[in-house]
Design goal:
Helix content is about 25%, strand content about 20%. With about 400 residues, it is of the alpha/beta class. Helix 1 packs parallel to helix 11 and helix 8 crosses helix 9. The structure holds flavin-adenine dinucleotide.
């Protein structure tokens, strides 16, 4: 048990924030979790998607022990179970948040708007450990209005999901993008379920070449079996063939299956999917103000043989922009955080990740406690946000980060 109850403020009740809270409370700290939505809000937003990693990789030893011992013990999924986001939230994360140890410590519908020090500005005591003697001040907002809270340590576990990148060339918004696309266009629609009617019989442009784009393409192609009028145009920036990089001997069976299915659809000579490699998005124009209005998209292709840039125009019913997510850095902009200029991840971890070139995130480890340190004493960026724009984060790495961080937090 920590001899003095250090106050630990945790931003976000996703998998990593919840696990960190339980770990902290079990170690004797005074942990408070602030969640802008409800427990596992982001996981629930992609609740229809199946996790690639089996349950055994996604739950901590301390979380499982707490849930399976004592008078209120509950049964957990088996280690090899492949759960959807919704099942993971319902069968593990929600029960975790309801453990007696966390009673009164998880504050839902409370957003952390800003983090600072109580008496020191960003430019004071530069890189000086003495900043750690001044408590953090958190600006919180909710139905009640605004209030502040103090903490000795802050764990920023606020994730990246929903804080999207842009579709346009160069990673900027293309002309018209900010007017034409809605925040929901950058998420993962439930094409086979709740959002089916929006996509069946329609032409959808999917932009992106990651697993989310692959998921959308495969789901839309399945919809085309029910209604052959359903068409998919899949635009990727890269010319890489096939579009999704498969991992040789992939230990995550569901991920391997998804890559194969998406690549086969892209390479097929006939079928519902038309793959357009090497395309940059120049302009998007919505034909009317309604959310489901048709959109005209201007793509740019560099013709190598002619050494010329060619423009082509498409008209589509829907756009799914799966171009990745980025951390919200406004949260800690008044603190001294050293960030990587390429990934916006905390610098030490970003530098360590640069050496990890494998596309297979299962072979990564946490990179140890030192990689989590940055100039601001007592601030730790954990979970998906710790990877910045790098999408290779896995929950099992976040669980290691928690134990690593607590070796530095001290009593
Ligand atoms: C579709 C998809 C599938 C994935 N599949 C896997 C997989 O199979 N295996 C795997 O290991 N990983 C997977 N990941 C990657 C990653 O592990 C998950 O995104 C995971 O949810 C990250 O956990 P987290 O706790 O860091 O962040 P999140 O789950 O994103 O949680 C962050 C929480 O913080 C809250 N929040 C944000 N800002 C604030 C604020 N200012 N104030 C208060 N609260 C705030 C959010 O509402 C959210 O509840 C997947 C990701 C996606 C998008």
């Amino acid at each position: 048990m920590a001899s003095e109850r250090k106050r630990i403020a945790i931003v976000g009740a996703g998998p990593i924030g919840l696990e960190a809270a339980l770990y902290a409370v079990q170690a004797g700290y005074d942990a408070q979790v602030y969640e802008r939505g409800t427990v596992a809000a982001n996981v629930s937003r992609w609740g229809h998607v199946k996790l690639f990693s089996p349950f055994g990789m996604n739950a901590s030893s301390w979380g499982r022990e707490a849930l399976t011992t004592g008078p209120d013990a509950c049964a957990l999924p088996t280690d090899d179970a492949l759960l959807s986001g919704r099942q993971f939230a319902r069968q593990y994360l929600r029960p975790l948040s309801e453990l007696p140890a966390l009673a009164g410590r998880i504050h839902e519908q409370v957003r952390v708007d800003s983090l600072g020090r109580s008496h020191h500005w960003k430019g004071d005591l530069i890189g000086d450990a003495a900043r750690g003697d001044d408590p953090f001040r958190l600006l919180l907002s909710g139905d009640y209005g605004e209030r502040t809270r103090l903490a000795d340590v802050v764990l920023d576990c606020s994730g990246t999901f929903g804080n999207h990148n842009w579709v346009g060339a160069g990673g900027m918004p293309c002309v018209g993008e900010r007017q034409a696309l809605l925040a929901t266009d950058y998420l993962l629609p439930d094409v086979a379920g709740a959002d089916r009617e929006r996509f069946i019989g329609k032409t959808t442009l999917v932009v992106g070449s990651g697993y989310s784009a692959a998921t959308a393409v495969v789901a839309l192609a399945e919809l085309a079996e029910a209604d052959p009028a359903t068409r998919v145009i899949w635009g990727t920036r890269s010319n890489r063939t096939p579009p999704i990089t498969s991992i040789e001997g992939d230990s995550l069976v569901e991920r391997a299956r998804l890559c194969d299915a998406a690549n086969q659809l892209a390479m097929a000579e006939a079928g519902p999917v038309e793959w357009l490699p090497g395309r940059l998005v120049r302009r998007i124009q919505r034909e009317a103000r309604e959310p489901d209005a048709r959109q005209t998209v201007c793509l740019e292709l560099h013709d190598r043989q002619e050494n010329a840039t060619v423009e082509e125009e498409l008209t589509v019913d829907r756009i799914i922009a799966n171009v990745g997510y980025r951390p919200d850095r406004r949260l800690y902009e008044e603190l001294q955080v050293h960030e990587c200029y390429a990934s916006s991840a905390p610098m030490k971890l970003a530098a360590a990740l640069l050496g990890d070139t494998s596309a297979d995130c299962t072979v990564q480890s946490s990179h140890g406690p030192q990689a989590l340190q940055n100039p601001e004493p007592g601030l730790f960026i954990l979970g998906a946000k710790s990877y910045g724009r790098d999408s290779r984060f896995l929950i099992q790495i976040g669980l290691q980060q928690i134990t690593d961080a607590f070796t530095l937090i001290g009593p």
